[in-house]
Amino acid sequence: EPEVTQTPSHQVTQMGQEVILRCVPISNHLYFYWYRQILGQKVEFLVSFYNNEISEKSEIFDDQFSVERPDGSNFTLKIRSTKLEDSAMYFCASSEPAPLHFGNGTRLTVT
Amino acid sequence: AQKVTQAQTEISVVEKEDVTLDCVYETRDTTYYLFWYKQPPSGELVFLIRRNSFDEQNEISGRYSWNFQKSTSSFNFTITASQVVDSAVYFCALSLDSNYQLIWGAGTKLIIKP
Predict the structure, then answer these.
(1) Nearest CA to CA, how far is A56 from chain B (Å)?
(2) Cβ separation of B102 and A56 shorter than 8 Å?
(3) How many helices (H) and strands (E) are present in chain A, helices listed first?
(4) Strands A10-13 and B10-14
(5) Long-range contacts of range A46-54, CB-CB < 8 Å, 24 or more positions apart?
(6) What DSSP line would sit under chain B, residue for residue?
């Protein structure tokens, strides 16, 4: 069964550094998403992406965040200058439009 | 505003017991979708079910069953004859619009003891 793949599974970075989280969505899916989950807390929506542009974003998704689909297969989330509070599990998801299929997540640790 | 409430923070049962996880949602929209996802200790999110607001039929999939009741805005999830491998956090979620952004409940941690 096709699946969403995310790399790396765990990323450790220093505060202030840029980080790029990578995702390969399911190939025939049209909608792409990033969610995050701070340890032990609720899953939070960050951004949705359709037709090569952001369709919706949350208040969390400020100017430090950006998304890109650079080559038609990858879907990336960039955090420009990481903060301690960015430490979380980041989930990529894709859909046809529904249901959402999630990747296994990237655990981001900002030190 | 839309909201999903999972009032049970943590449930602990002994293996082979049946267990029901509650989910109550709030929305004024007439068209919406409800989901359950499982998050095992390894952290990934696993899709279990999607239901649209026009389909109130209950669903059974093996040991899993779901009871959707619009009258009480509930979408409860029952595991029959629970197993240790069912131990996970279970999330209920709601989506309304065409981009299928999910509104999540806080999750219920289910512990199945051998």
Answers:
(1) 8
(2) no
(3) 0, 11
(4) unpaired
(5) A46/A77, A47/A77, A48/B99, A48/B100, A48/B101, A49/A75, A50/B99
(6) --EEE---SEEEEETT--EEE--EEE-S-SS-EEEEEEE-TT---EEEEEEETT----EEETTEEEEEEGGGTEEEEEESS--GGG-EEEEEEEE-STT---EE---EEEEEE-
* Tens digit of each residue's pLDDT (9 = 90 or more) over A26-68: 998 989 999 999 988 889 999 999 988 999 899 999 999 999 9
Whether B100 and A42 lie within 8 Å, measured CB to CB: no
Q: Hey, are the CB atoms on A98 and B91 less than 8 Å from each other?
A: no
Q: Nearest chain B residue to A50 by CA: give it.
A: B99
Does A56 contact B at CB distance below 8 Å?
A: yes
Identity of the residue in B37, B43, B46 whose CB atom sits nearest the CB atom of A89? B43
